[in-house]
Amino acid sequence: MARGAPSPANQQVIRELAARGQVVAASQLESWRRAGLLPRHRRRGLGRGRGSVVDTVDPVVVESAAALARHLRQGRNRRLAVLEWFAEAGLPVRPGAARVPEPPIGAVREAVVWVLERSVSQRLVAFARSVAGAGEEGQDALYEVAGRLMKPYRGAANPALVRVALEAGGDVPVEAEGPDSSSMVHLVAAIGFGAQEVGADALAEALAASGMFDLTVEDWAQALGKVERGEGPPVDWGLLQQHADTAGPVRRASDEGLVRAREVLVGLRGFYGLYVLHVLHGLLLPDTPAQTALRQRIDAWGMFPVLDHMIAISPSPVQFAEFLAICMEPLLDKLYEMLMEQLGDDPDIFSLPGDATGPVGFGETWMRTVRELTKTGQQGDDDADGGFRLSN
């Protein structure tokens, strides 16, 4: 083999990727190996003093190189590519497709921590702690910085209330709107300055904006008011400090723990999708007992607003890392387990009662409903136009 020429094994990998339309150079393969992202070829010893040889190229090497070629573009941070690779490896395998191998879990951990340490929330927490002794000026500075860094976001409208409004032909009620996330800066202030400095009213707004347990500002204000008056158990505000360190649990998690968090995230994304499918942008799908049961489980825990905050159907690598860290929380793991149990008890998500055709009948019913609604709407428009013409 000529000096500097690709090894036969690398040449085979390059050929296999080229057949898929992926152009990869031997120097890239070696660069990925040096970074610990690509496995080395398995070699067989030839005997004492005779060296070793690669008999066959491991398919894991080829599929790992293919994953890196898909996600690692020139000039892109490798950590983002690793996160996309890890997310892809957790998806179901399509029929006829090869399974995507797992990236090195150490690289995944490093990438998640890298994202979390640079997140807006962590930057705000660090800033809040840095100005904690500056009194009102420090608080004003925090809120000014938060106003620049935080993107305004209002959670999705409650699908159940939206569907009721659509079926009644009325407007979506104000109470169906999701919480405004801008108030969550009060939690950052509580971490930096202490809960007492922030006050119960501001904390009530922040906790309601977080979506926890689907409680309103009034609900939280009432609960915190009881604590202030000594009428309820004291609140351990130190938990806020613990949860502020989002990267710490990722550093301490086992390899299996990171993979489990991904399973929880992927699973909850599916259940969230089923929940919002109840409305599907106003096109009313048929409801089924299995779908209703899943929504009831989520509503019983008041978790739809939380899922709405942390689920994106097509997340960016940064979002994926942040959501993955959240899914390490035991509460979300328990929610996922409960929903999986419910799905096991009643798996007929797209089957209407008494209809043996299953998903086919479900789809036909949906199309029929859409046609009827469209026809009704057109008739209403015609009536309105006719009335206008007669009155003029």
Features:
two-stranded antiparallel sheet; 392 residues; mainly alpha; 20 helices; disordered C terminus; 3 domains; flat
Helix and strand sequence: HHEEHHHHHHHHHHHHHHHHHH
**Mean of the pLDDT scores?**
82
**Shape from CA axes?**
flat
Taken as a percent bin, the fraction of beta residues is: under 5%
Question: Number of DSSP strands?
Answer: 2
Low-confidence stretches: 384-392
CA(first)-CA(last) distance:
92 Å
Q: In percent, how helical is the residue content? A: 55-70%
Largest sheet, described in full? 2 strands, antiparallel
Q: How would you classify the helix and strand content by structural class?
A: mainly alpha
Domain count: the total is: 3
Report strand order across the widest sheet. Answer: 1-2
Q: What's the gyration radius in Å?
A: 27 Å
| Tally of separate helices | 20
In summary, what is this structure?
The chain has helices at residues 8-19, 26-34, 59-71, 78-89, 105-117, 120-130, 135-149, 159-168, 185-193, 195-198, 200-210, 217-228, 238-244, 247-252, 255-276, 289-300, 304-310, 317-326, 330-345, 359-391; strands at residues 44-45, 52-53. It is mostly helical.
Please describe what this structure looks like.
- It is a single chain.
- The chain is mostly helical.
- The chain folds into three domains: 8-105, no CATH class; 120-244, no CATH class; 249-361, no CATH class.
- It has 20 helices and two strands.
- It has a two-stranded antiparallel sheet with strand order 1-2.
- Strand 1 and strand 2 (52-53) form a beta hairpin.
